[in-house]
């Protein structure tokens, strides 16, 4: 069950720790679409190379559908070699595997690699590939949140196309989709790798992979119109989060905003088992039974991210005594789980064992 959580006070206290000049948009959420901190999450912003998240996923979709393979060798066109911005070295007339081009795109954010992949899948038509990007956005329900015009995210002055744009909310949801591509996350989490038969070293643009505990992706982005953007996936204590920052004036400020956001979140929130089926919830007197009491257990386990400042209460409704016999699995009562003043779950309480009706000799044994 998805639980949408709004924490007004926490948001206010959280955001006051940052200057309004540190970013234009900020979002911190978990993998279940619960958003904990946000500012300007619906405002569209230039994406820069964060655009390449969608590029990579569209390529992996074609690999999954067996339209192409990782070992396919792609001829790099003059147009791809000259797109500008961040690029890997490619000799004229050379061919690179789809695997190497994906690594170059996801790790080094190479524009020529992203363009070459788009050309390959679009059979020379990059605009067709961009249509696939936007169609996937529509399929994910993100048609109003993101708009793609290039596979790279370069500014209009370099592409002659409109600006690739998106909201923090849209990129958060796109990042959640990226987590469903383990092959993508595997390469996005690499601090460095080698391509072209080990002859070219590529270093990840995401410096937080080396600096911040638990970070394992996903994509950075920057150009003069966008500022410094990032989508960060992190996992600590079995809790996965996505942090989106748009529009920071400097890379260092962006990365510090992410690091501080993660530290504050993991300091305040923790995953706790709130309903435990291994522990009895109630104990009821059994009248005329072979045993004096029967224990009742909850129907299913339940865990949730909770703040250290929240109250947790389990309200139980049940009879105080029951006449034997009692069958295992009999409903003895119900419960409501209240977290931070709101009911988040309700369920039944069942008898953990059968208790038979006592016979005359059972009464005699109790006396003596």
TrEMBL record:
Annotated GO biological process: cell wall organization; peptidoglycan biosynthetic process; proteolysis; regulation of cell shape
Functional pathway: Cell wall biogenesis; peptidoglycan biosynthesis
SUPFAM superfamilies, per the entry: beta-lactamase/transpeptidase-like (SSF56601), Penicillin-binding protein associated domain (SSF69189)
UniProt KW keywords: Carboxypeptidase, Cell shape, Cell wall biogenesis/degradation, Hydrolase, Peptidoglycan synthesis, Protease, Signal
SMART domains in the record: PBP5_C
UniProt EC number: 3.4.16.4
InterPro entries cross-referenced by the UniProt entry: Beta-lactam/transpept-like (IPR012338), Peniciliin-bd_prot_C_sf (IPR015956), Peptidase_S11 (IPR018044), Peptidase_S11_C (IPR012907), Peptidase_S11_C_sf (IPR037167), Peptidase_S11_N (IPR001967)
Sites where the protein binds substrate: 219
Catalysis: reaction(s): Preferential cleavage: (Ac)2-L-Lys-D-Ala-|-D-Ala. Also transpeptidation of peptidyl-alanyl moieties that are N-acyl substituents of D-alanine
Location of the active site: 49, 52, 109
MF-aspect GO terms: serine-type D-Ala-D-Ala carboxypeptidase activity
Family classification: Belongs to the peptidase S11 family.
Job of this protein: Removes C-terminal D-alanyl residues from sugar-peptide cell wall precursors.
The protein, known as: serine-type D-Ala-D-Ala carboxypeptidase
């Amino acid at each position: 069950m998805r639980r949408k959580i709004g924490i007004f006070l926490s948001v206010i206290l959280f955001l006051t720790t940052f200057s309004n000049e540190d970013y234009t948009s900020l979002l911190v959420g978990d993998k279940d679409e619960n958003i904990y901190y946000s500012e300007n999450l619906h405002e569209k912003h230039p994406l820069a190379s964060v655009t390449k998240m969608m590029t990579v996923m569209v390529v992996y979709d074609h690999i999954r559908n067996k339209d192409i393979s990782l070992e396919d060798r792609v001829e790099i066109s003059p147009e791809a070699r000259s797109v500008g911005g961040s690029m890997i070295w490619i000799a004229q007339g050379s061919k690179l595997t789809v695997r190497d081009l994906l690594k170059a795109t996801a790790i080094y954010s190479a524009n020529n690699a992203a363009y070459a992949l788009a050309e390959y899948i679009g059979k020379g038509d990059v605009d067709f590939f961009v249509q696939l990007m936007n169609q996937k956005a529509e399929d994910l329900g993100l048609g109003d949140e993101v708009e793609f015009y290039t596979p790279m995210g370069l500014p209009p002055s370099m592409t002659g196309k409109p600006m690739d744009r998106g909201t923090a909310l849209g990129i958060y949801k796109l990042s959640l989709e990226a987590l469903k591509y383990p092959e993508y996350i595997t390469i996005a989490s690499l601090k460095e790798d080698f391509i072209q038969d080990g002859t070219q070293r590529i270093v990840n643009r995401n410096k937080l992979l080396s600096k911040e505990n638990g970070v394992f992706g996903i994509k950075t982005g920057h150009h003069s119109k966008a500022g410094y953007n990032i989508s960060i996936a992190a996992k600590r204590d079995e809790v996965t989060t996505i942090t989106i920052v748009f529009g920071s004036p400097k890379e260092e400020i962006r990365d510090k905003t992410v690091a501080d956001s993660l530290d504050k979140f993991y300091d305040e929130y923790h995953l706790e088992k709130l309903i435990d089926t291994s522990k009895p919830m109630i104990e009821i007197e059994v009248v005329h039974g072979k045993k004096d009491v029967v224990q009742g257990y909850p129907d299913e386990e339940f865990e949730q991210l909770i703040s250290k400042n929240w109250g947790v209460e389990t309200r139980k409704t049940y009879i105080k005594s029951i006449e034997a016999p009692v069958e295992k699995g009999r409903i003895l009562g119900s419960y409501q789980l209240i977290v931070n003043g709101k009911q988040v779950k309700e369920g039944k309480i069942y008898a953990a064992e059968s208790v038979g009706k006592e016979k005359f000799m059972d009464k005699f044994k109790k006396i003596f």
